[in-house]
Design a protein that fits this description.
Layout: H1 20-43, E1 45-52, E2 81-83, E3 88-89, E4 98-103, E5 113-115, E6 123-133, E7 138-147, E8 155-164, H2 174-181, H3 187-213, E9 221-228, H4 240-243, E10 248-257, E11 261-266, H5 283-300, H6 316-319, H7 342-348, E12 381-388, H8 391-421, H9 431-447
Antiparallel strand pairs: 1-12, 2-5, 3-4, 4-8, 6-7, 6-9, 7-8, 9-10, 10-11
Length: 462
């Protein structure tokens, strides 16, 4: 009966090929070197989380040339960001601060929208709201941008700021604050802030002149709502809407005369005889202000359309009004107060002194204004990068992996060569048995040699 607690061992014998041993050991050394290099790439790195501003960031490693399949594709290392209603953001040009106003087609849960660093080429200005108050010498502005990208990033976002001459009103443009207060940003925002303010001053100056001439019989507050034609950068710079003067419709307007005299106009629904808010007094300067806001927002979107008069001064003639109509409340005067656009004169030649003696030659420092491509949203993404392990951890990981791979490979190799060796007829006999067989064969041949008949008796005669 066999002893279940006994141990046994396998009887071995050398291969019959003398060259197999040296070749196998040389091959094993080469295999260990190759496996070591391979496993440094496979197990010698660990994943860490880093912050990156570029969603499409990639990594390069020394092993990319012989392991190209491990090279990460752009957009595979970072986590997608999700926007919800009310979330704030800024574009790469950082001119305005935007807030998500609505999400037309959620693609992240039931109410969110995912963003993965795509450019805003499908976004454009959809509406501008302005309310000017002569009593406070301020204009409140809100602009709305709509993005329509077939469900990828369909949102509406809004930005608001105030143009005011009152020192207690602090509502500058985001880009202006960054450029002036912290020296972060560029001159685009400084130029845009100056031009929008000049357009606002043209509106205020003309309405104030009329208010004084009429002894308060003209509006002191004007409010308009304008909707623009959707013309995103994805249509290309040669699209008709990108070349012609930007089109907009003022669908609602209102003004206040005195303290309680509110007049409202709704496009297509005004009764006959209703006073018009948009008339010879207000239309031209408000058009300039709307165009200045429109051009500024499109710069923030990175839309270099030919009809943007800030980027292309030659477009001013077809976009802006350089003069305003003479009316009963804005009569001709030596200084042309309320009759000429300071916005146009300043932007045509910043080095020239304006009619009130102001000098805008400091703008030349920030010219020319340009955009370097479509903008995207400024984001900080969580990305998974590969970092080489510490020396100790790297050594242990590589040794374990090499040992595991090499032992498995060596076992397969030995199984193969053993199978070949066993194909020989005498492969399953031990050395002693084979030696005895050889000795027996030699002895038999000697016994049955010449002079013997195989019976043990000699054939010789007496």
């Amino acid at each position: 009966m066999p002893n279940l607690l006994s141990l046994d061992y396998t009887i071995t014998r050398p291969f019959q090929w003398r060259w197999l041993g040296p070749v196998s050991f040389v091959g094993a050394c080469i295999a260990i070197v190759l496996l070591t290099v391979l496993n440094v790439a496979l197990v010698g790195y660990e994943t860490i989380t880093v912050f990156q501003s570029d969603f499409n960031v990639t990594q390069s490693f020394w092993y990319d040339t012989f392991m190209p399949y491990r090279k990460p594709e752009p957009g595979t290392l970072c986590d997608t960001r999700v926007f919800n209603i009310g979330d704030a953001f800024a574009t790469t040009y950082s001119v305005f601060e935007w807030k998500v106003q609505s999400i037309e087609r959620p693609n992240a849960g039931i109410s969110g929208v995912a963003y993965n660093g795509t450019t805003l080429t499908d976004c454009d200005v959809s509406a501008v709201y302005i309310t000017g108050d002569l009593r406070t010498w301020s204009i409140d502005v809100s602009a709305v941008v709509s993005c329509k990208s077939n469900g990828k990033f369909d949102i509406s976002a809004t930005t608001s700021f105030t143009l005011s001459s009152l020192p207690g009103t602090q509502a500058p443009l985001l880009g202006f604050s960054k450029s002036v207060n912290s020296n972060v940003g560029d001159g685009r925002s400084i130029v845009i802030d100056a031009l929008i303010r000049k357009a606002g001053e043209d509106v205020g100056e003309r309405i104030a002149a009329a208010f004084n001439v009429s002894s308060g019989a003209t509006p002191s507050i004007v409010s308009v709502q304008a909707f623009f034609e959707h013309c995103p950068a994805s249509l290309g710079p040669n699209a008709d809407c990108a070349v012609a003067a930007p089109k907009f419709n003022i669908t609602n307007a209102a003004h206040v005369v005195g303290t309680v005299g509110l007049v409202q106009n709704n496009l297509g629904s005004d009764a006959p005889g209703t006073p018009q808010v948009m008339n010879e007094l207000t239309t031209a300067p408000i058009n300039n202000l709307l165009q200045a806001i429109y051009a500024s927002v499109r710069i923030d979107l990175g839309n270099d359309s030919p009809n943007n008069f800030i980027l292309h001064k030659e477009a001013m003639a077809r976009v802006l009004n350089s003069t305003f109509p003479v009316t009963a409340v804005t009569p001709a005067n030596p200084a042309n107060i309320g009759l000429t656009s300071t916005l146009v004169s300043v932007w045509t030649d910043p080095s020239a002194t304006t009619r009130d003696g102001s000098d805008y030659s400091w703008l030349l420092e920030y010219l020319p204004v340009n955009v370097t491509g479509a903008s995207s949203i400024q984001m900080v993404y969580l990305c998974q990068f590969q970092q080489r392990k510490s020396p100790g951890s790297l050594l242990i990981s590589v040794l374990v992996a090499v040992l595991s791979m090499f032992s498995s490979g060596w076992a397969l190799y030995m199984f193969g060569v053993t199978s070949l060796a066993k194909n020989r007829p005498d492969s399953n006999f031990c050395e002693g048995h084979l030696l005895n067989e050889k000795l027996a064969a030699v002895s038999s041949q000697s016994y049955e040699g010449p002079g013997h008949n195989g019976t043990g008796f000699s054939n010789a005669k007496a």
